[in-house]
Amino acid sequence: MFNSNNSKNNKFIDCLNEILSAENAGIERLHRRIQETPIQESKNILQDHITEEKEQQQRLKNIISYYGRKPTDSKADILSFNSLTTAISNTMKNNTQNNTTIKSTGHDNNNNNSAMTPKEVEILNTQEDALIKNDEILAHKTILKLAEKTMAKDVINILKQNLQEKESRYKKIRTFESEMLNYREENNHPESFKLGSAVADMLTSYWNSQKSPSRVYVFNRRVHHGAIGALLGLSSTLYKNNPIVTGILSGLGTGLQKDDYNDSKEWFLFKKKEDDAKENK
Q: Do residues 141 and 195 share a domain?
C-alpha cells in the first residue's frame, strides 16, 4: 500500500503523532459535550461528529502503524473559547483572578457558566467546536505539504480525505451556530437585535464599497471583522441583564460574522502584518 523509507519518514510520523494527540483530545471532549448538553439536536450532531472523528483517527493510526511506529494515546491541550470567556467574566466581576488559561483540559461548562442559560452555553460551546475544528484543518494542511514532498500517493490521499471531511464538518458547525444565534436573538430581543444588525450592515456596506479596503492590525497582528463579531457575540452574555445592550451587541456581532464568513478559517490566526502581506502579494 505505502512506499516505506524509515530514514526519511521519521519526522513525518512524529508530526502525525502530534496531530493524533490533538484528535484524541478532541474526541474525548466531544464525548464530554454530549454528556453536558441538554439539547437533543446538539447531542445528535455531536454523535455524528464523533463517528466521523473516529474514522479519521483510525486512518492516522493505520499510517503510523504501517511505518512501524506506535500511534500515541496521549491527549494534547486544545484551544478553548469557553475558558477565555469565563476568565474575562470572572475578571470583570471581582478583578481578583490573576492567572487564566485558554486550554481545554476537562473543565465543567455548566459550573463555569452558571449565569448563562443552557442555550447560551451551547452557543458558546459550538463556537468552540468551530475554533477547534479550524485548528485541525490547519494542522492537516501543514502535514499535507510535508507529505507531498516525501510520502506515497496513498498517504496523501488519506490525509486529503480527512481534510475534506473536516472542512465539511466546519461548515456544518458554523451553520448550526448561526441558526442558534439567529433564533435566540431574533426571538428574545428583536428590536435591539435588528438595530445591531442594521449598524453592521452600514459598516460592512461602507467597507465593501471601497476599491481596496484597508486591513486592521492590532499590535502588528491581523484582526478580521468576523473575529470582532464573534467576540461581540460572546461579550453579549456579560450584559444579559440589559436586553437592549445584549440585542445590539449580538446583532452587530452576527452581522460582522456573516459578512466575513468566507474568511472564517482565518479569524483567529492573528497573522503578523509582514506574513499577511507576503501571502496577499
A: no
C-beta of residue 2 within 8 angstroms of C-beta of residue 69 = no
Tell me, what's the pLDDT at 115?
52
Question: And the C-alpha cell for 264?
Answer: 472564517
Mean pLDDT of each 10-residue bin along the chain, 281 residues long: 61 94 96 94 96 97 94 86 45 40 40 59 82 88 90 93 96 86 56 68 70 64 66 58 62 70 63 66 58
Output Rg (C-alpha) for the chain, integer angstroms: 21
Q: What is the spatial distance between Cα 256 and Cα 253, in angstroms, rounded to a whole number?
A: 5
CA distances, 102 to each of 87, 88, 115, 128 (Å)? 9, 11, 20, 11
Please check whether residues 184 and 194 belong to one and the same domain: no
The pTM of this model reads: 0.61
State the pLDDT at residue 134: 84
**Closest C-alpha to 119, from 29, 196, 199, 184:** 184
Cell numbers describing residue 1: 500500500
Cell of 143: 502535514
List CB contacts of 72: < 8 A, sequence separation 6 or more: 17, 20, 21, 24
Q: Give the integer Cα–Cα distance in Å for 246 and 232.
A: 9
Q: Largest Cα–Cα distance of the chain, in whole Å?
A: 64
Identify the CATH number of the domain in which residue 6 sits: 1.20.1260.10
